[in-house]
Automatic annotation (TrEMBL):
Pfam families: DUF2999. It comes from Shewanella psychropiezotolerans. This is DUF2999 family protein. InterPro entries: DUF2999. The lineage of its organism: Bacteria, Pseudomonadati, Pseudomonadota, Gammaproteobacteria, Alteromonadales. It comes from the Bacteria.
Amino acid sequence: MNPILAILKEHNVSDAQIKDLFQTLTENPMAAMATIGQLGIPPEKLQQLMGLVMQNPALIKEAVVELGLDFSKVEAAKAQLQK
């Protein structure tokens, strides 16, 4: 299992919440950050999660694909943020 998904599940984040989070990520990465903050994950675990993503951004793609979402939307959102 993807380590991002594993951390979320470890903190009792439901499959529906995980899918919603990654759906939000594909549409609006900034909104996804706010959503992550509302999941009740302890700050130290959230920091670990962010560290994983910073060290290995490919984990996001793996998680999106594992959830059956369209990664091209993540790329489009990222490009929009860079404008």
